Amino acid sequence: MHNNEDPKNLFDDNNDIIVKLEEYKRLLLDSKENFSYFSDFIPAAIFIIQENKFIYTNKYFELLSGLSKKQINKKDFRELIHPDHLELVKEKNKARLESQVDINRFEFKITNPEQKEIWVDFSSIFIEFNKKPAFIGLAIDIDKNKKQEAELILAKEKVEKADKLKTTFLANISHEIRTPMNSIVGYSNLLTKPNLTKEKIQGYTNNIQTSTKQLLELLNDITDLSKIHVNNIEIDITRININELLKGILAKFETYIVRRNKEITINLKLPRNSNEMDIFTDTFRLNQIFSTLITNAIKFTSNGMVEFGYNIVDEDFIFYVKDTGIGIKPDSINKIFDRFFQIEMSKTTNYYGTGLGLTICKSYVEILGGEINVKSKENKGAEFIFSIPIGKTNINKQKISYEKAWKNKNILIVEDEKINFVMIKEFLSHTGVNIFNADTGEKAIKLFEKTNKFDLILMDILLPDINGIEVTKRIKDINPKIPIIMQTAHHYKEIASINVGADAFISKPIDFEKLQILINKYI
Predict the structure, then answer these.
(1) Given CB 3.0 to 4.6 Å as the disulfide criterion, which of 45, 305, 387, 401 pairs with 370?
(2) In sequence order, what are the beta bridge partners of 435?
């Protein structure tokens, strides 16, 4: 509809506009034919208005207005002005008449049957036409410029908001890290005092464990958000009994509520005859989703009830978590899953948190093939509802067991940090396995060459001489069948992309439940 050339570029400043309008005025007085011929080649709307009626328009005016010549001739000039800008045009024209200025120039919107509204840069000058007062006008289409300007302003506002949120986020993260760290350091120092009773030692240890777990959860949130951002989330689909999973979650949060002295009742609601109901999904991620939603429900409910459960609709599990807490304001419903939203809330409330939980939660639900929504009224609680596909239901039921005989199995732990070796050894002490240690890569290779009797190797990557990747390759050259689990602080995919030959990977800090599952799988 519009010429590809930006007509505003033809008139760079106010002087150009005056010169052009004066030229059109001279052409008009000199010859109407010359004026008409010249104006039809200009990529801008040129028109003459007398007593608010159009008595002349060029071809471009028809394109800009979306009207035919016949339709234009019947129009009052004011009918083309957008209703929002009609008063502006009247005021500008009145000001020009009162000040007797030579030229009137400003921006406003016109209405167009096809595009509804278009921004124009409008200029006009008085003339005498057929011995009556009139004015000749020029309208340049600046709609594209205005939209780009609005987009730039919006983008600037978004960048400023994001920058402000990130700054607040970093300050908030610093606070969230320092709180558990203060507890860990403080109680660790108290444990060094002499003549402590068993009760005090146990109490200090429990506080250290609680704070350590809180710190790890925070670090996991930050790591998970980073993985989600680069689409690097590992998913492990297994078959689980959904009722058993939810009963375990219930038991965990019943203890959680008691420890926090909350006057809350937590309930689990299961469908009838659903004891054998299985789902194929990522157990760890599903557990994280529920943990985030229930923790939030408890956080924002001072007293009352929290309930969670599920129903089955078609091929989906429809899970829910609802509470009788403070609810969500109507203007916040659409932002509840936005990153750092908790930070915005924290300006007016005393609720802690990083504002990452629900963002991560939504991403996990979508990765698992579902959707999540929230229903809430302020001061009347909230209900989060999310769906997860049931998965493969046509496979015969089998009871999955992780119980295996570990007694007298030989495990080599390649770890140079003594404190880490002792920790892993203690974790495995009740299993009956024989533990061996090599604190360098060379020692690990020599020990393996000498005995070659190990059933599994737990391999650290960062060693003081040869890195774990090279050690793994050399041991696999000796015996390709030996299972090697590599412990790493990097993303799995970054290490797995290297052809190291390891059978599995586990990230640091080590989740010992995951380690037990991996050892069960390979030993």
Answers:
(1) 387
(2) 411
**What distance in Å separates the CA atoms of residue 477 and residue 285, rounded to the nearest whole number?**
36
Write the CA distances from 284 to 52, 213, 245, integer angstroms: 73, 16, 10
Q: Which among 189, 231, 223, 236 has a CA at the least distance from the CA of 208?
A: 189
Alpha-carbon 427 to chain mean position: 37
Distance CA 242, CA 314 (A): 17
**Average pLDDT over the chain, rounded to an integer:** 80
Tell me how far apart the alpha carbons of residues 277 and 102 are, in angstroms, rounded to a whole number: 84
Strand pairing class (456-460; 410-414): parallel
Residues counted in the chain: 523
- For residue 366, the tally of other CB atoms under 10 A from its CB is 13
Torsion of CA 424, 428, 429, 433, to 10 degrees: -120
Distance of CA 435 to the CA centre of its chain: 44
End-to-end CA distance of the chain: 73
Which pLDDT tens digit goes with each residue over 11-40?
555 456 556 666 666 665 556 666 676 777
Q: Are strands 263-269 and 238-241 parallel, antiparallel or unpaired?
A: unpaired
The owner of tokens 């060094």 is 192
- C-alpha 510/C-alpha 431 separation (Å) is 18
What does the pLDDT read at residue 496? 47
Extract the tokens encoding 279. 């789902």
Pairing of strands 504-507, 103-112: unpaired
**Cα 358 from Cα 343, distance rounded (Å):** 13
Of 507, 503, 426, 498, residue with least CA distance to 460: 507
Please tell me the distance from the alpha carbon of residue 311 to that of residue 320, in angstroms, as a whole number.
Answer: 9
Closest CA to 312 of 344, 276, 283, 342: 276
Pairing mode of beta strands 456-460, 45-50: unpaired
Which residues sit opposite 106 in a β-bridge? 122
Residue 118 CB contacts under 8 Å (≥ 6 apart), including other chains: 64, 109, 110, 112, 141, 143
The average pLDDT across 307-319 equals 88
CA distance 339 to 296: 15
Place of tokens 């393996």: 448
| Cα 363 from chain centre | 8
Beta bridge partners of 306: 266, 323
> What CA–CA distance (Å, rounded) separates 18 from 8?
14
Q: Is the pLDDT of residue 440 over 60?
A: yes
Q: What is the pLDDT of residues 501-514, one digit of tens each?
A: 788 888 777 777 77
Tokens of 202: 């146990």
Strands of the sheet containing 372-376, edge to edge, are 263-269, 303-313, 316-323, 382-389, 372-376
Residue with tokens 């089998």: 398
Beta bridge partners of 110: 81, 118
